[in-house]
UniProtKB/TrEMBL annotation:
CDD domains, sorted: HATPase, HisKA
Cellular localisation: Cell inner membrane
InterPro entries in UniProt: HAMP_dom, HATPase_C_sf, HATPase_dom, His_kinase_dom, HisK_dim/P_dom, HisK_dim/P_sf, Sig_transdc_His_kin-like_C, TCS_sensor_his_kinase
GO cellular component: plasma membrane
Every Histidine kinase domain range: 253-453
Source taxon at top rank: Bacteria
Transmembrane regions listed in the UniProt entry: 167-191
Pfam families referenced in this protein's UniProt entry, alphabetically: HAMP, HATPase_c, HisKA
Name this polypeptide is given: histidine kinase
Membrane-topology annotation of the record: Multi-pass membrane protein
C-alpha cells in the first residue's frame, strides 16, 4: 500500500509523539519560568540589578553634589544601618574618591585589595569573609558618579539555607504536581483524540450483520496504522458476502427446481390404480418433501432484505387472516384458536406477506404442540403480539436451540422440517423486532416485541 503524506499526518504514532513533545516543551517552559522567578527572588543573585536600581535613586543638591538615596519598600535604606557588617554602599566621584557611604563601607579595604572582575563586578575579603560587589555609573550635569554595593557571602549563604532552599523545595514539589497533572491531561486528550476514529470504526463493525454484509468500514480520518487492518476486514466481508449470497441463491434455486418434479411425482402417485397400501405412504412422503421445499423457499426469501416491501399494516387484520387460514388444521387437531386484538391499535410498519408468514408459523407451531381439546391464544397489542399454547412447554436446556434451523422439538404431531421458527426469527430481524420464547404455567408463549423507531 502506498504511504502518502496524508496518511503520515494521520498516523497514530505521530499524534502520540506530537502530544508528548508538546508536553515536554510545556514542561521545559514552565521549569525555565520557575528558574527565572527563583533567580530574581534569591538574595545576592541580582546584585548588578540592585546596584543599578540604587544608582537610579541617587539624589543631588542644587550644586549637583550627591546627597543620598530615596527610600523605597523594595529596597529600604535601613538595612544598611542594621546589617552594616554584611552589606554596604558608597558613592565615588569621577576621581574615585568616596563622597557618600553607608556605615559598613567605612571599613572597606584599600583599592589595592579590591579585585576587579568582569561586568563591573568586584570582590574583596575582610576578616576572612568574602564580599561580592557591583558598580554602576550615574551621569548628572556632565559629571560622572559611581555607585558601589556589596553583600557578604555569609549573609547570602544564610538566606539561601534558611529561606531559598525551602522555597525551592516547595516550588519543585508544587511544579512537579502541576506537571504531573498537565502530562496526564495531555495524555488523556491525545488518546481520546487519537482513538476516536477507532471507536467509530468499532461501533460501525458492531452494526454489521448477515443482513448488512454489503456495508464496509470507512477509512476516512482513521490512523494510518489501522488502514491495512480495516482494508483486510472489508475484504473479508466481501468474501463473506459473496459466499452468503451464493448459499442463498443455491438454496432458493434448489428449492425452486425441486417444486416441479415433486408436483409431477405427486400427480403420478395420485394416478396410480390399485395398491392403496403403497399409494398412501408415497403421497405422505411427497407431501412432506413438498412442505420442506416450501419452507426452504420461505427461508431464502426471509433472509433476503431486498424481498421486503414495508407499509403500515393492521396487525389485528393480519392475525385474523392467519387464524382463518389455519382454522381447518386446528379443527383437525381438535384445538380451538382464540384471538384477542384491539380494534383501534396503532399500525405496524411491516411487510404484510412476511408478517402473515410470521403469524402463520407461530400459530401453526402452537397447534402442533397443543394437547387435544385445548386453546391456542393469540393476543395482539399495539407494541407486541403473543401466541400461547397449553402444551408441555420446552425444557430450559432446549430453549437456546428453539430458533435453530432444522431443530425439531418433541410433542409435535407432524413431521415438519424444523424451519418454521427459524423463518420467524429471520422475519423479526429484518423488521427490527425481537422474538422471545418463555414457559408459562402451562405451555409455551412466543412473543414478538415491536421496537419503536
Amino acid at each position: 500500500m502506498r504511504y502518502t503524506m496524508s496518511m503520515a499526518m494521520n498516523s497514530l504514532s505521530l499524534r502520540i509523539l506530537l502530544a508528548y513533545v508538546a508536553g515536554a516543551l510545556l514542561s521545559i517552559g514552565l521549569l525555565v519560568a520557575f528558574g527565572a522567578l527563583v533567580k530574581d527572588r534569591l538574595p545576592g543573585m541580582a546584585l548588578p540589578e540592585r546596584t543599578q536600581a540604587l544608582a537610579a535613586r541617587l539624589q543631588f543638591d542644587a550644586q549637583g553634589n550627591p546627597t543620598g538615596f530615596t527610600d523605597s519598600n523594595d529596597h529600604p535604606l535601613w538595612i544598611y544601618d542594621s546589617l552594616r557588617q554584611e552589606t554596604a554602599w558608597r558613592v565615588l566621584n569621577g576621581k574615585g574618591h568616596a563622597v557618600l557611604l553607608s556605615p559598613g563601607a567605612a571599613t572597606w579595604p584599600d583599592s589595592d585589595a579590591i579585585r576587579e572582575l568582569p561586568d563591573r563586578r568586584f570582590a574583596f575579603t575582610r576578616e576572612s569573609v568574602l564580599y561580592d560587589g557591583a558598580r554602576e555609573t550615574r551621569l548628572h550635569d556632565g559629571h560622572t558618579w559611581f555607585v558601589e554595593l556589596t553583600v557578604s557571602s555569609r549573609i547570602v549563604d544564610f538566606l539561601h539555607l534558611s529561606f531559598a532552599l525551602p522555597f525551592i523545595r516547595l516550588g519543585v514539589i508544587t511544579f512537579s504536581l502541576v506537571l504531573l497533572v498537565i502530562f496526564a491531561a495531555c495524555a488523556c486528550l491525545s488518546l481520546k483524540y487519537a482513538l476516536r476514529p477507532l471507536r467509530k470504526v468499532s461501533q460501525a463493525a458492531t452494526q454489521i450483520s448477515p443482513r448488512s454484509l454489503s456495508h464496509r468500514l470507512a477509512t476516512d480520518h482513521v490512523p494510518a496504522e489501522l488502514i491495512p487492518l480495516i482494508t483486510s476486514f472489508n475484504q473479508a466481508l466481501g468474501r463473506l458476502e459473496t459466499s452468503f449470497r451464493s448459499q442463498q441463491d443455491f438454496l432458493a434455486t434448489a428449492a425452486h427446481e425441486l417444486k416441479t418434479p415433486l408436483t409431477l411425482l405427486r400427480a403420478e402417485v395420485e394416478l396410480m390404480e390399485g395398491q392403496p397400501e403403497v399409494r398412501a405412504p408415497l403421497l405422505m412422503q411427497v407431501s412432506h418433501l413438498a412442505r420442506q421445499v416450501q419452507q426452504l423457499l420461505l427461508l431464502a426469501e426471509a433472509s433476503e432484505p431486498l424481498s421486503y416491501r414495508f407499509s403500515d399494516v393492521d396487525a389485528g387484520e393480519v392475525a385474523r387472516d392467519a387464524v382463518g387460514y389455519l382454522r381447518r388444521i386446528a379443527d383437525d387437531a381438535s384445538v380451538r384458536l382464540d384471538i384477542h386484538s384491539v380494534e383501534d391499535m396503532a399500525k405496524w410498519h411491516a411487510d404484510r406477506g412476511a408478517f402473515f408468514t410470521l403469524l402463520k408459523n407461530l400459530i401453526e407451531n402452537a397447534i402442533q404442540h397443543a394437547p387435544v381439546g385445548t386453546v391456542v391464544s393469540i393476543d395482539v397489542r399495539a407494541e407486541s403480539l403473543s401466541v400461547r399454547d397449553q402444551g408441555a412447554g420446552v425444557d430450559p436446556e432446549q430453549m437456546p436451540h428453539l430458533f435453530e434451523r432444522f431443530w425439531r422439538g418433541a410433542h409435535r404431531r407432524d413431521t415438519g422440517a424444523g424451519l418454521g421458527l427459524a423463518i420467524c426469527q429471520e422475519i423479526c430481524t429484518a423488521h427490527g423486532w425481537s422474538l422471545t420464547a418463555s414457559n408459562g404455567l402451562t405451555g409455551l408463549t412466543m412473543t414478538v416485541y415491536r421496537n419503536r423507531a
